[in-house]
């Protein structure tokens, strides 16, 4: 299962962002190229395992967009993209995002109170982005029925699960200077 994803992760180069060993991969970076067979494998898996009884798919700029788009095209469910840019629209919700190597602001538009949503993203590491996303969706009055990250590294997903959030991940990995290791 997920053979293309596993194979491609084992080939992912690492570069240092401060102390953080950042792996570079088609799903998480769009580099060197996003192959249709890989994205199809990922989205097929999400369709098989996620709760898609939702009004909207929510993803986060930038590297959730290709996954969210492919899922939206396959399911005919609209896509809402949380942006890193302020639009100043009425009801826009701003939250702070902290990852293992960056800090910034996220801006949510397009969610109405009571909307049932699934959150999809490429990777969960510290969980900072997922937490900011869930805070924004709570403020918007959305009902989050599922959260799916393709790749899990580090302890963020477990930490969020400990806080009562339902998080699904497809593959757990570790990354150090030597490369990516697949944990399951
Ligand atoms: O669990 P975390 O530590 O928060 O890391 C996960 C987040 O990091 C990446 O986003 P990033 O903000 O680097 O932006 P990008 O999608 O534009 O590459 C990735 O797309 C996730 O959203
Ligand atoms: O190591 C990583 N690679 C790509 N995207 C990421 N987002 C958090 N960590 C990573």
UniProtKB/TrEMBL annotation:
Primary localization: cytoplasm
Any Gene Ontology biological process: IMP salvage
Single GO term (MF): hypoxanthine phosphoribosyltransferase activity
Domain of life assignment: Archaea
UniProt keyword annotation of Cell inner membrane present: no
Reactions listed under catalytic activity: IMP + diphosphate = hypoxanthine + 5-phospho-alpha-D-ribose 1-diphosphate; GMP + diphosphate = guanine + 5-phospho-alpha-D-ribose 1-diphosphate
EC numbers: 2.4.2.8
Localization: Cytoplasm
Keyword Glycosyltransferase attributed: yes
Gene3D superfamilies hit by this protein: 3.40.50.2020
Record-linked PANTHER family: HYPOXANTHINE/GUANINE PHOSPHORIBOSYLTRANSFERASE (PTHR43864), XANTHINE PHOSPHORIBOSYLTRANSFERASE (PTHR43864:SF1)
Name this polypeptide is given: Hypoxanthine/guanine phosphoribosyltransferase
Gene for this chain: hpt
């Amino acid at each position: 299962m997920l053979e293309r994803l596993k194979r491609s992760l084992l080939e992912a180069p690492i570069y240092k962002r401060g102390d953080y060993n950042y792996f570079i991969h088609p799903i998480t970076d769009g580099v060197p190229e996003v192959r249709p067979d890989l994205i199809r494998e990922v989205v097929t898996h999400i369709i098989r395992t996620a709760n898609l009884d939702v009004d909207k798919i929510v993803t986060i700029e930038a590297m959730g967009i290709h996954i969210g788009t492919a899922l939206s095209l396959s399911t005919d469910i609209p896509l809402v993209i949380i942006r890193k840019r302020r639009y100043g629209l009425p009801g826009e919700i701003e939250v702070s995002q902290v990852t293992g190597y960056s800090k910034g602001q996220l801006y949510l538009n397009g969610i109405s109170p009571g909307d049932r949503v699934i959150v999809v993203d490429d990777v969960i590491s510290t969980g900072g982005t997922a937490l900011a996303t869930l805070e924004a969706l709570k403020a918007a009055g959305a009902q989050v029925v599922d959260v799916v990250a393709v790749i899990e590294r580090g302890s963020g997903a477990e930490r969020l699960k400990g806080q009562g959030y339902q998080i699904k991940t497809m593959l757990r990995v570790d990354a150090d200077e030597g490369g990516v290791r697949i944990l399951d």
